Amino acid sequence: MAERRTINTEVLLDEVRAHLAEGKRVRLRVKGKSMHPFILEDDMLVLAPAESLRKGDIVLARINKSRYVVHRIIGITNGIITLMGDGNLYGREECRREDIFGIALSVIHNGEVTELLSVSSRLIASVWRSLLPFRRIIWKIKKYI
Amino acid sequence: MKKINGFVLRRLGTEAVIVAESLDLIAFDRLVSLNDSAVYVWESLNDSEFDSNTVVRLLTDRYDVDEATACKDAGELIDVWLRAGIIEQ
């Protein structure tokens, strides 16, 4: 009667999206490593409905009406919002405002809460992003070692 | 025993799961999946107090199982739910 089951991520995130649309906050467990080092696999993330957005926000978005991502906004130009995972070296996604359903308020790692909208969190993330060219070089060097 | 306030049965696609809900926060980080018979027990219990006999009775009333099997299933189910923190003594 009590077997362990897994829930399809898309189905779960459809449900998350519905609750965000109702104005509720949602807490969920993170899968994947694309937001490393700020959000790690198995961390818990608190999302709220996305009312206003700006560069540096981490958002739940649907890309090409299919897959969901929780990535950071790295640019907003003429209604096109560009996202990128903090842990990614190259991959970017583009979407529109209506494809963004939630904004990440905080992350909980081993019981410790980090506010993601705070000035310090934004500053650290911005420094991390400015190091992207160096991270790419280090990644290339590592490939040859 | 009784259910802990705030845990609600929801359907996610084909799966039935227990989700923690408060006034403005829904917690999807600790989902407890239920199979059909567990859904039946959870829904039948409502918000009333229950013990393992209540669960055994629900199972034997609904399914073609002997008392011993129902006792074993009820014990397992209550154990899982207690460990998941969705019911309390």
Describe what you observe in this structure.
The complex is a heterodimer of chains A (about 140) and B (about 90). Chain A contains three helices and eight strands, in the order αββββββββαα. Chain A has about 140 residues and is of the alpha+beta class. Chain A has one domain: Ribbon (Umud Fragment, subunit A). In chain A, strands 1, 2, 3, 4, 5, 6, 7 and 8 form an eight-stranded antiparallel beta sheet that branches. In chain A, a hairpin with an 8-residue loop joins β5 (about 80-85) and β6. Chain B has three helices and five strands, in the order ββββαααβ. In chain B, α2 (about 50-60) crosses α3 (about 65-85). Chain B starts with a strand and ends with a strand. The model of chain B has no long low-confidence stretch (mean pLDDT about 90). Classes of the chains: A alpha+beta (about 140), B alpha+beta (about 90). The interface of A and B includes residues 5, 7 and 44 of A. β1 of chain A pairs parallel with β4 of chain B, so a sheet runs across the interface.
- Unreliable sequence segments of chain B: none
Chains forming the largest contact? A-B, 21 and 22 residues
Q: Using the coordinates shown, work out and report the CATH topology of chain B.
A: Arc Repressor Mutant, subunit A
Overall number of strands of chain B: 5
The helix/strand series of chain A, from N terminus to C terminus, equals HEEEEEEEEHH
- Broad shape of chain A: globular
CATH architecture field of chain A: Ribbon
Question: What distinguishing features does this structure have?
Answer:
heterodimer, A: 145 residues, alpha+beta, Umud Fragment, subunit A, 8-stranded antiparallel sheet, 3 helices, 34% strand, B: 89 residues, Arc Repressor Mutant, subunit A, two-stranded antiparallel sheet
Provide a concise account of the structure shown.
Chain A is an alpha+beta fold and about 140 residues long. Helices cover about 25% and strands about 35% of the residues of chain A. The mean pLDDT of chain A is about 90.
